């Protein structure tokens, strides 16, 4: 299949989360650890001026001994806190049996890099969100080509789930200076091959918070439609990926950091 000639998803770009002439920022902790932790982190997202909060309830980890998330309890915490603050929730779904449960508590279902090629999950999610206001955020697999990434999205859209946003989160290369290598060229290529919005996750790509803001600025210039960044009210005490989470003061300044770059591209940071 020649992706340069045939892949055109022809889906709507005004899917609620991504709007014309805007640059969407999603922020929040890697994982919901407790009610108090999520309240503090979500309030910082609200104060920073963003509308979408992220958090993991079902958290895939490389080690089976690492914190795996709170499951349904985490979902309830997110939806309760987000509802009180007027935020929308983005969270990962890993198991087809959890799709309806996650849809009860979140507006956007994230498909992680490890599940990008889980085609049965993609099809079940596409069918589940068809005709609803729910969206899907599809992360690129660690070693997936742009073509494989786009075709994975089509497993969702083919079932009627047309509110799909692609997310570049870094790929495996020989480089070890960063956790993964952020492939901004893939963002540009994907946007030219599909009608799908594309956002960037600089937190997972860098694996270190000092690179998150510079990579965020570069993402604006690479024509991305937005970001998903990790933030935590107390990164030193985070149970998951604290080293890549922005502290509150950095999150509060993120919109101001990005606005000149977004403005130059004719976009408003929201």
Automatic annotation (TrEMBL):
Gene Ontology biological process terms in this record: aromatic amino acid family biosynthetic process
Entry keyword annotation includes Oxidoreductase: no
GO molecular function: 3-deoxy-7-phosphoheptulonate synthase activity; aldehyde-lyase activity
EC number: 2.5.1.54
UniProt xrefs under Pfam families: DAHP_synth_1
Keyword vocabulary terms for this entry: Transferase
Keyword DNA damage on entry: no
Span of domain DAHP synthetase I/KDSA: 21-251
Protein name: 3-deoxy-7-phosphoheptulonate synthase
Gene responsible for this protein: aroF
């Amino acid at each position: 299949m020649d992706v340069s000639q045939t892949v055109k998803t022809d889906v709507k770009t005004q899917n609620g989360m991504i709007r014309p002439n805007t640059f969407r920022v999603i922020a929040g902790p890697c994982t919901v650890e407790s009610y108090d932790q999520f309240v503090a982190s979500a309030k910082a997202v609200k104060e920073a001026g963003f509308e979408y909060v992220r958090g993991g309830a079902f958290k895939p980890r490389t080690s089976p001994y690492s914190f795996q998330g709170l499951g349904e309890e985490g979902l309830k915490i997110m939806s309760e806190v987000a509802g009180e603050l007027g935020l929308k929730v983005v969270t990962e779904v890993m198991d087809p049996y959890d799709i309806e449960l996650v849809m009860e508590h979140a507006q956007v279902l994230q498909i992680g890099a490890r599940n990008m090629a889980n085609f049965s999950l993609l099809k079940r999610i596409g069918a589940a969100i068809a005709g609803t206001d729910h969206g899907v955020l599809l992360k690129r697999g660690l070693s997936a080509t742009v073509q494989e990434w786009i075709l994975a999205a089509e497993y969702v859209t083919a079932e009627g789930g047309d509110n799909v946003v692609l997310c570049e989160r870094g790929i495996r290369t020989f480089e070890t200076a960063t956790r993964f290598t952020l492939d901004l060229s893939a963002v540009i290529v994907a946007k030219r091959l599909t009608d799908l919005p594309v956002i960037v996750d600089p937190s997972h790509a860098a694996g270190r918070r000092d690179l998150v803001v510079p990579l965020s600025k570069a993402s604006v210039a690479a024509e991305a439609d937005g970001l998903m960044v990790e933030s935590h009210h107390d990164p030193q005490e985070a149970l998951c990926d604290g080293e890549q989470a922005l502290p509150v003061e950095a999150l509060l300044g993120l919109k101001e950091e990005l606005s000149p770059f977004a403005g130059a591209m004719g976009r408003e940071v929201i």
